[in-house]
Give the backbone structure.
Amino acid sequence: MTSARNHLDPSLLRGLTRPRPVRPRRDVLRLLGAAGAGLVLTACGVQGQGGKQNVTRSQVAQYWAGKTRNGRLSWANWPGYMEDDRATLKAFEKATGIKVDYKEVIQETASWFGRIQAPLAAGQSIGFDLMVMTNGIQLEKARQLGYLAPLDHSRLKTFAANAGPGFKNPSYDPGNTFTVPYVSGITGIAYNTRYVDEEITSIAQLFDARYKGRVGMMADSQELGNFGMFLIGVDPEKSTPADWERAAERLRRQRDAGIVRKYYEQDYIDAVSKGDVWLTMAWSGDAYSLAGPDVKFVVPEEGGTIWTDNLCIPKTAANPVDAITLMDWLYDPENNAPLTEYINYITPVPATRTVIAEHARRAAGEEKKELERLGSSPLVFPAADDMARLRHYRRLSQAEETRYQKIFEPISKGS
Amino acid sequence: MAGPTRRRAAPYLMVLPAGLWMLVFFVIPLVLMVSLSLQTGNLVDGFRQTFHWQNYTDGLAAYGDKFARSLWYGLLATLACVALAYPAAYWIATRGGRRKPTYLSLLLVPYFVSFVLRTVAWKLVLTDNGPVLGPLRDRGLLPADAHVLDTGLAVVSGLTYNYLPFMVLPIYVALERIDPRVVEAAHDLYASRFQVFGRVVLPLSLPGVYAGVVMTFVPICSDYVNAEMLGGPRNTMIGNVIQSEYFDNSAYPLASALSFTLMAILLVVIFVYARALGTRDVLEAARR
């Protein structure tokens, strides 16, 4: 090696190691480049796309014209929202011949929206024909920006016949223009009874210093903000920016005292099941469908939030007819019951309750007990007075949203 | 005429594919991002160019501590990488013998698994009642409320682990290139083993360390996966902030401004580092 290096032509070595003399031409190029960059800097902005939430009948017809069933669809959903053996999807395929490619890719509404926003803005496919979005800031944005396909209600007859009164024409999507509910759920507290030796009943216990480093809160700024507001006795739906500041102050104190171990997305279930956190903000159905037997779920006495996860079709979907077929099919109580039995959330199809009762009559042993519990569970079929304790997310205008996010977003990021 | 012209054009033609690639996928996006970092607006109403330089000062004011933490974690993890990588590389280069390729590939085997999966594995290992902390606590070696997951220690450990090969490989290459006769000569001149290492081997391997530090420090400072999965609310790094500003809040201008601030800081740090350690020394050492 060394001897070979000695034979290297010295001029070549010089060429390799020394910078070449700078030529004036480069300065010209540099100037041109800078001028060009300046032009580009001023030229490009991102067009506003707002104001697309109002849809006329002809726009609906226009969207669906020429669309046909293709025998397949891909569906983006949250973990824990379908039986492990995908029985509902198999039944759907058997009934309609449509194959479903089902992916549990959604962990949080905000990060999901972040992922799909760029392709949708560019009018490109996101690889999914059907997705589930929670009512809230991001769904509102997707509606306003025209990212969602307007639903053709002539194809949603089963929905019209069976959807519960609370699930039709919701305030966040008047006339179900873009969405139909998949399930509703309650945000409350889950705790691991192996580690917590008292009864957890209130949000104040999430702020108790004895659970230092053992409390999980949610990273979602709406969920987090709501719990802060419940703590200071404010109804989130009627809250003002001053309330937000006060709630944020309490949440920040809770964090800085080291009480909060982590701000979670969907992964809180794993942490509370393993005992990394002992009590955490949680979604009602998860505590049954995903967490271990030691985890208990409660609706806090200060109040809980009720939210709805909605089925919607991205405008760029390749198989929208197949997607809307599935939407409608899920509203048949016979089809909806097995799903509800597994996921334990509030179903938008009230008639499912009689089907579950029928299943319970035919079942035996453990399974019978489980189905009976489910049929009478206030978390799956809430009674009117339960519903009265539950609050909805506040709808935020564009200006309010910016302010809200500025107040609550930094908390989970440690600022 | 055609001959010399073509010969003069040849080098330019040869860099054309790479140059085009850089233009389309690096320069243009970079210019667009600079432009974006000076705009104001929101997703629904659109963003407009207003040359709002405050995006930069706002970003620094709001997240200055996250920048500092990223650099601090970057420093710690890089030092840990050097401490772990140097002996390993030294051993492979000097004692590896015929098995050198085997040892190197063993080092790389875990990296055939996805980055995210490897980090999830750390989560399973470090969980409070997991295989490491569980037994230690049961034997009373740890206080009941001690935990590693969701702390800075977990984040720095994860970072160190994930970037280790980028440190081992350049150091190994530098050590491997040292002419054994130089070492022999030092011994012949009655240098002790420590003197041989300190005055011959170490200086000759510094270019490898230098390259390794650049290759690990820069990506570590902008990493967000480790802080996201292994850290708690007090371990947020600047990468997490940029990620959430961009994807969760759609605050594109602020996220772009933060990215460029990070880029500028890293460039300055690397520049100072190169000056301090001396690129000239490195080049000289490489030429020898």
In short: The two ends of chain A are 56 Å apart (CA to CA). DSSP finds 18 helices and eleven strands in chain A. The interface with chain B takes residues 1-2, 17, 37, 40-50, 108, 110-111, 113-115, 117, 141, 144-145, 212-213, 255, 260-263, 274-276, 398, 402, 405, 409-410, 412-415 of chain A (CB under 8 Å).
